[in-house]
Amino acid sequence: MRTVKQTSERRRRRVRGQIQRKSRGRVRLSVFRSGRHIYAQVIDDTSDVTLAAASSIDKDLKGSLKNGCDKTAAAEVGKLVATRAVAAGIKEVVFDRGGYLYHGRVKALAEAAREGGLSF
Fold it and tell me: Is the full-model pTM beyond 0.85?
């Protein structure tokens, strides 16, 4: 039997493989969510460089958020990473949900990033 960790790692690798096949040279918007916070970063996989990043523990957001683990925090992180990516000259990305379901905080972050100017 597989453990929960092995199952989630397998799901994450499967999603990452699908993204790499369909990316067509675009950069990747990667999401990580923990029990207390949510993180997003725009990664260029060809040169292994993070181009823009935001999280619920950023100094820009920490004072305005009640806590870092709800949909409003995820939406604020999505807006912030989108503005930082657009400032870096990036408009087209591929969304990497990281093995998480496209639901709740992950969906809120993605929709806010779309509203912020990223297209995926």
Answer: yes
